Amino acid sequence: MFFIVPINLKRASDFHGHLCPDLVIGYRACELAEKILGRERMEKEGIVVVAYNSTSAIDAIQTLTGCTIGNRALQIIDWGKHRYLFIFETTGEGVEISFRNHDFLSSEEYNALEEKMNRYPSNPKESALYQRMIDERVKQLLSATNEDIFTYREVKMNPVKREVVTGLLRCEICGDMVLRSNTARTRGKTICYECFNKEVGMMENN
Ligand SMILES: [Zn+2]
Ligand SMILES: [Zn+2]
């Protein structure tokens, strides 16, 4: 199947490794955020993104907005929902974009085939059918209007500062060096979350 892929989506799919429906949803969400918030203002003031899933869409968000997990401008709350907050760092103003229910993405035939492909080795006929279904979804997502696929509302939140913590401490139980932000104080000791979880597990088993 042939269709024209916008240059920014091409960039995202080069980074991601393939072109798939989730990637296109992420791409369309960025495009809509840019339309509402204004590209110039986004670049000038800086934005932080909160994404409520950890699908292929995240790679589109990272390539297109420059907000990444590594630079702490992208936060993931993995509820498995295509919902995205694009927030100005300084003012906390922004937009929340949610993917609507859409019939062509929740077909029983597609879900059943996907489940089968995940569980068993697939045969070439099934693989070809699956790829055709994916291409069809990509095409539909690219040609739909924003209103067809998203609901959105402007929001005002407390300014979201990217947290930059680089200081390291030594865990007083295992001795590993660990980021200051990822330690807990318990019984007079500063310890890492790994040890903290073990301690909690031991307390629960007693
Ligand atoms: Zn993908
Ligand atoms: Zn530790």
Q: Could you explain how this protein is built, in words?
A:
The chain is globular. β3 and β4 (93-99) form a beta hairpin. It has 2 domains: 7-156, 2-Layer Sandwich (60s Ribosomal Protein L30, Chain: A); 168-205, Wheat Germ Agglutinin (Isolectin 2), domain 1. It has helices at 7-16, 21-37, 39-45, 57-65, 108-119, 124-143, 146-149, 193-205, and strands at residues 47-51, 74-76, 83-88, 93-99, 150-156, 168-170, 177-179, 183-186, 189-192. The chain is built from 8 helices and 9 strands. The protein has 206 residues and is an alpha+beta fold. It has a 5-stranded mixed beta sheet. α1 crosses α4, α2 (21-37) packs parallel to α6 and α5 (108-119) packs across α6 (124-143). Bound molecules: zinc ion (2 copies). One zinc ion (ZN) binds at residues 171, 173-174, 176, 191-192, 194-195.
